[in-house]
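Build the 3D complex.
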Amino acid sequence: MQKKASGMNYAPRSAEGTTRKACARGEFQLGVIGLDHGHIYGMCNGLTEAGGEVAMVYDPDPVKVEAFLKAFPGTPVARSEDEVLQDKDIRLVASAAVPVRRAELGIRAMECGKDYFADKPPCTTRDQLERARRVTQETGRFYSVYYSERIHVEASVMAERLIREGAIGRVVQVINIAPHRMSLEQRPDWFVDPTQYGGIIVDIGSHQIEQFLYYTGARDAQVESSRVGNFTVPQHPRFEDFGDATLTADTGAVGYMRVDWLNPDGLGAWGDGRMFVLGTEGYMEVRKYIDVARDPEGDHLYLVDRQGEHYFNAAGKEGFPFFGNLIRDCLERTQTAYSQHTAFKAIELALDAQENARKLDGTALR
Amino acid sequence: MQKKASGMNYAPRSAEGTTRKACARGEFQLGVIGLDHGHIYGMCNGLTEAGGEVAMVYDPDPVKVEAFLKAFPGTPVARSEDEVLQDKDIRLVASAAVPVRRAELGIRAMECGKDYFADKPPCTTRDQLERARRVTQETGRFYSVYYSERIHVEASVMAERLIREGAIGRVVQVINIAPHRMSLEQRPDWFVDPTQYGGIIVDIGSHQIEQFLYYTGARDAQVESSRVGNFTVPQHPRFEDFGDATLTADTGAVGYMRVDWLNPDGLGAWGDGRMFVLGTEGYMEVRKYIDVARDPEGDHLYLVDRQGEHYFNAAGKEGFPFFGNLIRDCLERTQTAYSQHTAFKAIELALDAQENARKLDGTALR
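Done.
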């Protein structure tokens, strides 16, 4: 699967060939429920490249199912969610349903003894979060999340490794800038309704907050300030095309993130995602999806330390260890791929930032 | 004067040859008092290239005066501040004295009928600001400020022009990242004492806030959050090597700025200053002093709009119109080069952010 240089959705680079299978054939079967967001393809690609098999798919919309079968030919199609949830061989249920429905499905999946793998955001309300958290404790099942910008971008994987290896000393700050292309005419109705997607900081920003927690090594953080606004979509007054937030981690490190739907059409990628990690002994910049006016491909990492300036192209160098680790975690009940604590903490902080955000009056912009 | 690729201070590119003289020979004489910061050279270069003449210099330290005479040979040396302030031919007094002393000097200069040109920050306390503001009103004199990162960087001048021309639509956000090389061993004692320099947001951040006001076209703004910390200099516990702030402008636009003294020694410039301006129809990024691992020189502007991705090298293209305009302003009592309102508003907001900043515990950093 090749990355598209432009268009709406980011199709992660395939790691096939560089990824070691994490399990034997038939050992890890997943069921798919809910194809509303294209991220489901990245989720299934990651898991199947690591040895998993898509054993069954369900969506009420036959058009979406048909499209899915083109990417995963021969997948048995279930007649209901229950058929997937009751299947004894399925160990994990993956879903990119409309965000507001992800938690309910995950709770049912866990209560049926399955682990769960939700597209981000994993939920859209505090009540959903608390119930999901409780059910993970009650059932011992995992509610993992596809925070793709960290786990499914090789430059992000490289950044995480370099930070861990001490390349920039202790992490002082993470700045994450995440513009997205709106392509409003191609979007479903739920895209512009915050009761469906949770607001821009929940929907996109949970990504950035999760990265902040991982790169700083934080267990917890505090939202210092946040803002949301609608600068360009007056026909959908409740939609948010801009959000930002500042956070302070329990490690002492600080973060700033911006998320938006203002990516201009002239960019040869769906968004010019950037991350700056400032350390006590150097800093790095990740240009995730493009290097503007220089390279239409992504996965660029620039590192400056005491010795000099360094450039790394991470494409094909790191793979995506998350997926194989998640499979082993599910099989062995460990938590190496991810931390259940952090998966929930990221969305909890996103909900904090969303709920308390200052509402910007985008229509007043001069 | 050539820009140094590394080192402590940024020596702006000369605009000689591209800059039209703004006045006749002998028409605009300036007196220089206070050579504590190297910015005085940029200030005097800018004004002399635009037609001004350095008519007299004073500093209590003969070593600093001697160094100044190497750059501006033959300048008459005054025996006291008063000798400069009482000189009838001097129209403007320029100063890069220790920040805490800049306001007092400026007030005296204005009371002597001179315009004033202070290095940034123009003052360090609210009381100084209010007195300076009052004296500009009482005397009708100007208290202009060398906010060099906007007025003395050609890529910044180009950004301002492109924004004015509508290249990115209306301005939604400005992100300004301003790392600086500390070079602690080369710094005077006042550098580490916040009572002398006003704190990192006042000292450096007044720059970033001034840029925010100019690029958004704001008259006023509100500080939403701010933080300061000391992550790497435990031997000077009151020193601040990190600061950041979020602001919301009266235009509806928003801003984020980070300032720090953590620029790693391996960078081939004193700081990797970056600015991102997000508009409703595009965005631009300015790489002011270097393009990491690509070009040791600065003045890079990347622009993405609806049509495509564009790269501009601003060096030698824009010049520094501020200085000639300031001279004309002083001669004609207009305010085209700068706005007295904005010069004071920038430091007022910096004082707000500094006073209310959350104090980060840098020693706790894991």
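Residues 7-147+322-336 of chain A form a domain with the Rossmann fold fold (CATH 3.40.50.720).
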